[in-house]
Design brief:
Elements (H helix, E strand, L loop, with lengths): L3 E3 L15 E3 H5 L4 H15 L2 E3 L4 E3 L2
Length: 62
Amino acid sequence: MRKYLIDVNLPYYFSLWNNENYIYQRNINSQWKDNRIWDEVCEISENYKLVNGFIDRIEGIN
């Protein structure tokens, strides 16, 4: 199971997220708008309790 979603605005070819823990938004569907991606994330979050990590805080998604 992937743990992290990498935003489409970040570099695609970056060694940090080139492993099985990460999924890049482009690999899901590069044509989807942010709200479509977040709808999918929130749906998954109901089962897996996903969070957003920020420099100063952590927020639950849902």
